[in-house]
From TrEMBL:
Residues 1242-1269 have a biased composition (Basic and acidic residues). Residues 1037-1046, 1057-1094 have a biased composition (Low complexity). PANTHER family: NEUROFASCIN, PROTEIN SIDEKICK. It is found in: Cell membrane; Cell projection, Growth cone. Residues 26-114, 128-215, 228-316, 321-408, 419-501, 505-594 form the Ig-like domain. It comes from Esox lucius. The keyword Repeat applies. InterPro entries: FN3_dom (IPR003961), FN3_sf (IPR036116), Ig-like_dom (IPR007110), Ig-like_dom_sf (IPR036179), Ig-like_fold (IPR013783), Ig_I-set (IPR013098), Ig_sub (IPR003599), Ig_sub2 (IPR003598). This is Neural cell adhesion molecule L1. GO terms for cellular component: cell surface; growth cone; plasma membrane. Interacts with SHTN1; the interaction occurs in axonal growth cones. Interacts with isoform 2 of BSG.
Length: 1338
C-alpha cells in the first residue's frame, strides 16, 4: 500500500496501479468463496479477477473438466475479467449449475489459479405439515418441546416466541438447546400456554418460518415430589466430539430435577482456561477458536439437594491446513537469487504439492536455475524468460490451501509512478505525508532531500517508509520547500519533486453568540476570521443546518450577518462556516425572538412573560413498523410564543423510568410523525419551550410496541491488536440498547490474513471482543464486523487492518562502529537487522551509551546510562551522538526496538572524545583589597574538558558606563592567584577569567572590584553566580546580632545596582550572622563587625539523591518598589540546610542564583515596576524545588543611584548656600521695617501686651502685663484667627491722615483703627517679626 495525501493534508491509502508499465505475470485479485452458497432467486455470479501485463485471458474448469462458456446461452463472462454471470431470465434451474468451479488467468508470463469454488444453491424448505396434540404434563416433571426445523442450506437459526412475537423467557429451569429444542428441567403451573412456537430463520431468503404452536397443559398437584438430577442432553455417561482448529467448540449439558439442578464444568488434568465461556446459565461450555491444547476430557456435573450426576465428553481437535509462511511474489533481476517458501501445518500433516502455471511442477519443462526442496523452491542465477506463476497446494482430509506466487525476471532502471512536481498544501502542526511511489529491478534505494541540499532525510523529524513515502511528523513553517526523492539502482536513477507549502490554520477568532432579540429589532451575528493570507476563504451561513438565503433583508459583510426587523421566522441556529481549499472552521449560535404584549384594558401596562404550560391530550395514530403519529394540544404560552416542542420517550425493557429526548419540532406544530427503533415498547411525553424556559412535561401517552427487525447500526471503534506474540484481540464498542432492534443481539466477527487470499474465519459472540489465538507474530489481518439478532443480520462494517502481537526482536544490529569522534559528538554506523527479525512494528535503533571515565586524572564522572533512538530503514544507516563530554572515555551498544520490546544487544564499542574548551572556572574572588593593590584567587573548572595549559585574565577600569583599556595576563595551570598594583585607590576594575586547553579558551567568569571605602574591613565573602554568561559578585559581611540577608537582583542594561543593606531575622543561633550587599563606585555602606571571619569561597557540591519526603512549598512573595519579602516552608533538618534563591528578570531574561540560609529573606535592589520570576531550591538536592512564582514590583519616585549626601564637599557647599540666604533675609527684613511696614522697638526681646492702652493725650503707653504675657513666638486672637496685614493707611489714626517721623517711619501704625473694637486683632510683634525668627534660628 502507498500513502497519499488528500486535500486536507491527511494521509490516506490507495493500492498500487493494477497494471504497471512493465511486464508482469497474472495475479488473482478477487475470487468467490471456496464454499459458495447462492440465492436461487438471484442470478449466479462467480467472481474471478486478475491483473497482469499483458492483460490476462481467462478460462474455467467445472468439476475438473474444461467449461466452454460460449456454448451456454445463460452464461456470460465479463469483459477484461473472468467473472461468470449465469442468468435465469429466460428459464433454467439454478440447481443445474451446482458443482466445483476453478478459474485460470493466463498471459505470456504464466498462469494463476483460483481456489476450487464449490457452488451450491440455498434451500429453505417449508416446515412439514403436522398436527400437534396438546402436551399434558404433571407439575414438576421434565419436558422437551422438539423443534426439528426443516434441513436448509445453510442451516436455519432457531428461536422460540409466543403469539405476541415476544421471546420465551429463559432461565436456569427453561432454556433452548443447541439443537433448537426447548428444555424444561421441571414444569411449573405458570408454564401453561397455548403458543409455544419454534421459529426458523433462513439467512439467504430472509424468511422466517414458524412451526405450529404447542399447547402446554400442566396438571397441578398439592405437593411436587423432589427428584435427583437426570441428563436430558446428552444421554448416557459419556460422549465424544471432534472439532477443527479455529472453529467454535460448544459442549452442552441440560439436566432435569426438582429443585432445578445447577451445572458445573471441569476439565480432566487441569483447570478451565481463560478462553472458556460458560453460557446459557452454565449449560453450555463454549470456546470461540479452538486450538490443539483445548483437546481432552470435559466433565459436566448436575446437582441439587437430592443428588448429583456426571457426564464426560471427549474432545478431539483436528486441523485443516493453515499457513506458517505463505509464498509471496518475487521480482528478480537477471543472475539474482531468490526462494519461494510454502510452510503449513495441520492435523494430519498436510501434503505439499507445487505447480507451475497450473500444472504439476514435475511435468513441466526442466529449469536448471530452479530446485524444489520440500516446501521450498530455490532459484539461483535466474535468467530472462523464466518468469512463471507457481502454485502451492497444501491439503489433508479436512481441507486445502492454495496460494499463487509469481517469479518475474526483470532488468529495469528506476521509474517514478506518481505525478511529477506535485504541489502539496498542509496546515501547520499537522502530520504530513509526501508520496513517492517507485519501481525498479533490482530494487532501488530511495532517499529524500530538501531544497537539493544536505544528506538524506531520515530520523528525528522525518520518517521514510519502505514504499517511498516521507512522513513529516509535525509540519512547521520552516519545513516549507521543495523535496526531492531519488531512487537509484545499478541501472540508473530517477527523481521526482514535491513542493510543500505550510499554511496557517483557518480560525474563527470572534464567533457568533447566542442572543435574544425583540421582534422588529435588528440582530447581528459576528464571524471574524483569521487565516493564511495566501489562501482565499469562503464564508457561508447556514440556518438550522440548511443554506441561508440572503435576500433583500438579510445582509452579510466581511465579519458579520445582520438581520433587520426580526420576526418569529428568523428564530433558529445560525452557523458560520469558513472554508479554504485545505481546512475549515465553524461556529454556531441561536437566535430567539421575543415580543411584548400590551394589556387590552391598560395599553401602558406590559404583561410579564412566563414558562409555557405543558401540552395536553397526547394521542397516537397511524401506527407503522418504524413510525407513529403523535398529536397534542399546546398549553398557554404565557405571553412568550412557544419556539419548539421536545418529544421524549421512555421504554420499559432496558432503562425503565428513564426519559430520553427523541426529537425536537418547531413551535407551530402539534402533530408529528415519530421515527422509532424496532423492538421497543415506547411511551411518549412532550415539553414546550419559549424564551423564558421549558414547561413541565405533559402526561405520558399510551404505550406502543414496535416490531423487531435486524440491526441497522454498525458497531463502532472496530480494531485489532495483539496482547501477546501469538494472538490478536478484536474489539469494538457495543450497540446501544435502543439499537438492538430485536432479541438476542450477537456480533459476527470475520478475520483473515491480509493479502493472502485465504478464506474468512468468523465467530459469533455476545461479548465486545474476540481473541484470535495461535497467530503468527505481527502479521496483518483484515477484519470486519456485523451485528445480528434473532430477526437477522445488520450491515457489515468496512474492512479494517489489525495486527497480531509483537515478540522480542531476535537479531541484534551488527558491526556497530564509530567515525569522526569530536569533542562533543561522534558519528556511528551499523549494519541493520533483517526486517523479519524485528517481529513487530519497527520503532527505532536504540543506542545505550555512558561515560566510563574522564581522561583527566582524578576526575570522577557520572556513569548513568543514556539512550538515543535512530529511525532508519536504509541499507547503510548512520547517526550522530551529541551532547558528549569532551576528553572522555565512552562505551555504547545498540538494540533494535519495536513498539513493545527491545532485541538483543549489539557488539559493545568503546570510543574517546577529543579535547574541548574547558568549563567556566569554579570561582573567581577578590580576597584582599588595600589602598595599593587587589589580590585575586580562583579555582579550576569542574570539567577541564582536556589538559589545562593555563588561564587568561583580562581586566579594565570601569567608571559607570565608561571603561578603560583592556589588559591581558596569562598564567600557567598551577597559578590560581594574582596581585594587581593600584595606581589610584578610587579606581574600580572588572576582571574576566577563562581557563585554556590546547583547543582554546573556555567560558569567561567575570567579577568587579569593591569600592575603596570598604578598605580596612574584614575580608568579605564573595559569591560568584552565573548570570546569562557573566559573573556577578555578592558580598556577605558578618554582623553582631541578626542575620541580615540582602539578595541582589539581576541588573538591567546598563548594569547599575543601588546600594542596599536590609535585615532579615533568622532563628539559627549557631549560624554566623551575615549581610549580603552589592556595591557601586560611589556607594558607601557602614557596617559594624563583631567578629571578622576569613573569606570562605562557595564550593559547588555534587548532587546527592534526595529524600522523597523532603519538599519545599508555600513560596510567597510580598513585593515593594525596590525590594520584596520572600518566605517559604520546608521540612529539611533544622540548621543543616541551605537553599538557592533563583530569580529572573522578565524584560531581558537575565537570571541569578544566590545561596541563602533559612527563610524569610528580604530581596533588595529590585527594579521598580519590573516583573520577576522566582523559585527556591535546595543547594544539596537540586531536584527539590518550589514552584515558580511571578511577581511585579511597584513604581516609585526616581532617585539617584549615587548617594552624595555624605560627601564633604557637598555638605560644605550646602552650608555656604544656607549662610548666604540667611544674610539676604536679614537685610531684606531690615529694609522693609524702615519703610514703615513694621514697628521699631528698643526692647526686641520683650513681647507686647495683648492690647496697647491709649493715654489721656491720645498717645500710646507701651507697657507689658506679666499676667497676660504670651509665650515668645506665639500669637493671640480673640476670635481665634490671625489678623492679616493691610497696606492701606486710611484705617489708622484720626481721619485717616498718617503721622510720620522725620526719618519717614510711620508712627501711627499702632493707633486704634476706626470703627473697630479695642480688643480685636492685636498680635505679638515677637511672633510676626522675621528678624526675631532669624535670631531664634541663630
Amino acid at each position: 500500500m502507498m500513502v497519499i495525501l488528500n486535500p486536507f493534508g491527511i494521509p490516506s491509502e490507495r493500492p498500487r496501479p493494477s497494471l504497471l508499465p512493465v511486464k508482469q505475470p497474472p495475479t488473482i485479485v478477487k475470487q468467490s468463496l471456496k464454499d459458495y452458497i447462492v440465492d436461487p432467486r438471484d442470478n449466479i455470479i462467480i467472481e474471478c479477477e486478475a491483473k497482469g501485463n499483458p492483460v490476462p485471458m481467462f478460462s474455467w474448469r467445472r468439476n475438473g473438466k474444461f467449461f466452454n462458456v460460449g456454448k451456454d446461452p445463460r452464461v456470460t463472462m465479463r469483459k477484461r475479467s473472468g467473472t461468470l454471470e449465469i442468468s435465469f431470465r429466460s428459464g433454467g434451474r439454478p440447481e443445474d449449475y451446482e458443482g466445483e468451479y476453478q478459474c485460470f488467468a493466463s498471459n505470456d508470463f504464466g498462469t494463476a489459479l483460483t481456489n476450487k469454488i464449490l457452488l451450491r444453491v440455498s434451500k429453505s424448505p417449508l416446515w412439514p405439515k403436522e398436527v400437534l396434540e396438546p402436551v399434558v404434563v404433571t407439575e414438576g416433571s421434565p419436558l422437551v418441546l422438539s423443534c426439528n426445523p426443516p434441513p436448509g442450506l445453510p442451516p436455519p437459526l432457531t428461536f422460540w416466541m409466543n403469539s405476541n412475537m415476544m421471546s420465551i423467557a429463559q432461565d436456569r429451569r427453561v432454556s433452548m438447546g443447541l439443537n433448537g429444542d426447548l428444555y424444561f428441567s421441571n414444569v411449573l403451573a405458570k408454564d401453561s400456554q397455548t403458543d409455544y412456537s419454534c421459529n426458523a430463520r433462513f439467512l439467504f431468503t430472509h424468511t422466517i418460518q414458524q412451526k405450529n404452536p404447542y399447547t402446554l397443559k400442566v396438571q397441578t398437584s398439592r405437593k411436587v415430589t423432589e427428584t435427583p438430577p437426570a441428563f436430558l442432553s446428552p444421554t448416557g455417561t459419556d460422549s465424544s466430539m471432534m472439532v477443527l482448529r479455529g472453529e467454535k467448540l460448544q459442549l452442552e449439558c441440560i439436566a432435569s430435577g426438582v429443585p432445578t439442578p445447577s451445572i458445573k464444568w471441569f476439565k480432566k488434568g487441569g483447570d478451565l482456561n481463560q478462553k472458556v465461556k460458560l453460557e446459557n446459565y452454565n449449560k453450555t461450555l463454549q470456546i470461540d477458536s479452538v486450538s490443539e491444547e483445548d483437546a481432552g476430557e470435559y466433565m459436566c456435573m448436575a446437582n441439587n439437594q437430592i443428588g448429583s450426576i456426571r457426564h464426560s465428553i471427549y474432545v478431539q481437535v483436528k486441523a485443516a491446513p493453515y499457513w506458517l509462511d505463505k509464498p509471496s511474489n518475487l521480482v528478480l533481476a537477471p543472475n539474482e537469487n531468490g526462494r519461494l517458501v510454502c510452510r503449513t501445518n495441520g492435523n494430519p500433516k498436510p501434503d505439499i504439492q507445487w505447480l507451475v502455471n497450473g500444472e504439476p511442477i514435475g511435468s513441466s519443462l526442466p529449469n536448471p536455475s530452479r530446485e524444489v526442496v520440500g516446501d521450498t523452491i530455490i532459484f539461483r542465477s535466474v535468467q530472462t524468460g523464466s518468469s512463471a506463476v507457481y502454485q502451492c497446494n497444501a491439503s489433508n482430509q479436512h481441507g486445502y490451501l492454495l496460494a499463487n506466487a509469481f517469479v518475474s525476471i526483470l532488468d529495469m532502471a528506476p521509474r517514478m509512478l506518481g505525478p511529477k512536481n506535485q504541489l502539496i498544501k498542509v496546515i501547520e502542526n499537522n502530520r504530513t505525508f509526501l508520496d513517492c511511489p517507485f519501481f525498479g529491478s533490482p530494487l532501488p534505494e530511495l532517499r529524500w532531500f530538501k531544497n537539493g541540499q544536505g544528506s538524506g532525510l531520515d530520523g528525528g523529524h522525518y520518517r521514510v517508509y519502505i514504499n517511498g513515502t516521507l512522513e513529516i511528523k509535525r509540519a512547521l513553517a520552516e519545513d516549507q520547500g521543495t523535496y526531492t526523492c531519488v531512487a537509484s539502482n545499478i541501472l540508473g536513477k530517477e527523481e521526482n519533486q514535491v513542493r510543500l507549502e505550510v499554511k496557517e490554520p483557518t480560525r474563527i477568532v470572534r464567533a457568533p453568540e447566542h442572543q435574544s432579540a425583540i421582534r422588529g429589532t435588528m440582530a447581528r451575528f459576528d464571524c471574524r476570521v483569521k487565516s493564511d493570507a495566501s489562501l482565499p476563504i469562503t464564508v457561508t451561513w447556514l440556518k438550522d443546518d440548511k443554506p441561508l438565503s440572503l435576500g433583500w433583508r438579510l445582509k452579510k459583510d466581511e465579519d458579520s450577518l445582520s438581520i433587520p426587523s426580526v420576526n418569529e421566522g428568523d428564530e433558529g441556529v445560525y452557523t458560520c462556516t469558513v472554508k479554504t481549499e485545505i481546512d475549515q472552521d465553524t461556529a454556531s449560535a441561536r437566535l430567539t425572538v421575543t415580543q411584548t404584549s400590551k394589556s387590552s384594558s391598560n395599553p401602558t401596562a406590559l404583561r410579564s412573560a412566563d414558562r409555557p404550560d405543558p401540552p395536553t391530550d397526547l394521542e397516537l395514530s397511524d401506527p407503522a413498523a418504524s413510525s407513529i403519529r403523535l398529536t397534542w394540544i399546546p398549553g398557554d404560552d404565557h405571553n412568550s410564543p412557544v419556539t419548539r416542542f421536545v418529544v421524549q420517550f421512555e421504554e420499559d425493557h432496558w432503562e425503565r423510568g428513564k426519559w430520553q429526548n427523541l426529537s425536537s419540532y418547531p413551535g407551530d406544530l402539534n402533530s408529528v410523525v415519530l421515527q422509532l427503533s424496532p423492538f421497543i415498547n415506547y411511551q411518549f411525553r412532550v415539553l414546550a419551550v419559549n424564551s423564558v424556559g421549558q414547561s413541565r412535561p405533559s402526561r405520558p401517552s399510551q404505550r406502543y410496541q414496535t416490531s423487531p427487525a435486524p440491526p441497522d447500526t454498525i458497531p463502532s471503534d472496530l480494531k485489532g491488536w495483539g496482547t501477546n506474540k501469538n494472538n490478536m484481540e478484536i474489539s469494538w464498542e457495543p450497540l446501544l440498547d435502543t439499537e438492538r432492534n430485536g432479541p438476542n443481539l450477537k456480533y459476527l466477527v470475520w478475520w483473515r490474513r491480509k493479502d493472502t487470499g485465504e478464506d474468512w474465519s468468523n465467530v459469533t459472540t455476545e461479548k465486545t471482543k474476540h481473541i484470535v489465538q495461535d497467530t503468527e507474530t505481527y502479521v496483518p489481518y483484515e477484519i470486519k464486523l456485523q451485528a445480528k439478532n434473532d430477526i437477522g443480520p445488520g450491515p457489515e462494517s468496512n474492512i479494517i487492518t489489525g495486527y497480531s502481537g509483537e515478540d522480542k526482536p531476535t537479531a541484534p544490529p551488527t558491526d556497530l562502529r564509530v567515525f569522526k569522534p569530536e569533542s562533543t559528538k561522534v558519528s556511528i554506523h551499523w549494519t541493520p537487522v533483517d526486517p523479519s527479525t524485528v517481529q513487530g512494528e519497527f520503532k527505532e535503533y536504540r543506542v545505550y551509551y555512558w561515560r566510563e571515565a574522564s581522561m583527566v586524572k582524578g576526575l570522577h564522572v557520572n556513569k548513568e546510562k543514556k539512550t538515543k533512538g535512530f529511525y532508519s530503514t536504509v541499507a547503510q544507516p548512520t547517526g550522530i551522538l551529541t551532547d558528549l563530554h569532551p576528553y572522555s572515555h565512552y562505551r555504547m551498544f545498540m538494540v533494535v526496538a519495536n513498539t513493545r520490546y527491545e532485541g538483543p544487544p549489539s557488539n559493545h564499542v568503546e570510543f574517546y572524545t577529543k579535547e574541548g574548551v574547558p568549563d567556566v572556572p569554579t570561582s573567581l574572588k577578590i580576597v584582599q583589597r588595600s589602598t595599593d593593590y587587589i589580590r585575586l584567587e580562583w579555582e579550576k573548572p569542574v570539567e577541564p574538558n582536556g589538559i589545562l595549559i593555563g588561564y587568561t585574565l583580562k581586566y579594565q577600569t570601569v567608571n559607570g558606563s565608561q571603561v578603560g583599556r583592556m589588559v591581558i595576563e596569562s598564567f600557567l595551570p598551577n597559578v590560581t592567584s594574582y596581585k594587581l598594583r593600584l595606581p589610584d585607590r578610587a579606581l574600580r576594575y572588572k576582571f574576566y577569567l577563562a581557563a585554556r586547553t590546547q583547543v582554546g579558551a573556555g567560558e569567561v567568569l567575570a567579577v568587579e572590584s569593591p569600592h575603596f571605602t570598604n578598605e580596612g574591613k574584614s575580608p568579605p565573602r564573595v559569591l560568584n553566580t552565573r548570570l546569562c554568561g557573566r559573573a556577578h559578585k555578592h558580598t556577605l559581611t558578618p554582623t553582631d546580632d541578626s542575620s541580615s540577608t540582602t539578595v541582589p537582583p539581576p541588573p538591567p542594561p546598563p548594569p547599575t545596582t543601588a546600594s542596599t543593606a536590609i535585615s532579615t531575622s533568622t532563628t539559627t543561633p549557631p549560624t554566623p550572622a551575615t549581610m549580603i550587599t552589592t556595591t557601586t563606585p560611589t556607594a558607601t555602606t557602614s557596617t559594624t563587625t563583631a567578629a571578622p571571619t576569613a573569606a570562605t569561597p562557595v564550593v559547588v557540591t555534587s548532587t546527592k539523591r534526595a529524600d522523597k519526603n523532603v519538599v519545599i512549598w508555600n513560596l510567597t512573595v510580598e513585593p515593594n518598589s525596590n525590594y520584596a519579602n520572600v518566605s517559604w516552608n520546608h521540612n529539611f533538618p533544622g540548621g543543616s540546610s541551605e537553599f538557592q534563591l533563583e530569580f529572573t528578570l522578565d524584560s531581558n531574561g537575565s537570571m541569578s542564583s544566590v545561596p541563602v540560609k533559612q527563610p524569610p529573606i528580604k530581596l533588595a535592589g529590585l527594579i521598580e515596576g519590573a516583573k520577576y520570576r522566582l523559585r527556591v531550591y535546595s543547594s544539596e538536592y537540586h531536584s527539590i524545588s518550589s514552584k515558580v512564582v511571578t511577581f511585579e514590583t511597584s513604581t516609585a519616585y526616581i532617585k539617584d543611584h549615587v548617594d552624595i549626601a555624605t560627601q564633604g564637599w557637598f555638605i560644605g557647599l550646602m552650608c555656604a548656600i544656607a549662610l548666604i540666604i540667611l544674610i539676604l533675609l536679614i537685610v531684606c527684613f531690615i529694609k522693609r521695617s524702615r519703610g514703615g511696614k513694621y514697628p521699631v522697638r528698643d526692647k526686641k526681646d520683650l513681647p507686647l501686651e495683648g492690647v496697647d492702652q491709649k493715654g489721656e493725650d491720645g498717645s500710646f503707653d507701651y507697657h507689658s502685663d506679666e499676667d497676660n504675657k504670651p509665650l515668645q513666638g506665639s500669637q493671640n486672637s480673640l476670635d481665634g484667627g490671625v489678623k492679616e496685614s493691610d497696606d492701606s493707611l486710611v484705617d489708622y489714626g484720626e481721619g485717616g491722615d498718617g503721622q510720620f517721623n522725620e526719618d519717614g517711619s510711620f508712627i501711627g501704625q499702632y493707633t486704634v483703627k476706626k470703627d473697630k473694637d479695642e480688643t480685636e486683632g492685636n498680635e505679638s510683634s515677637e511672633a510676626t517679626s522675621p528678624v526675631n525668627a532669624i535670631y531664634s534660628l541663630a
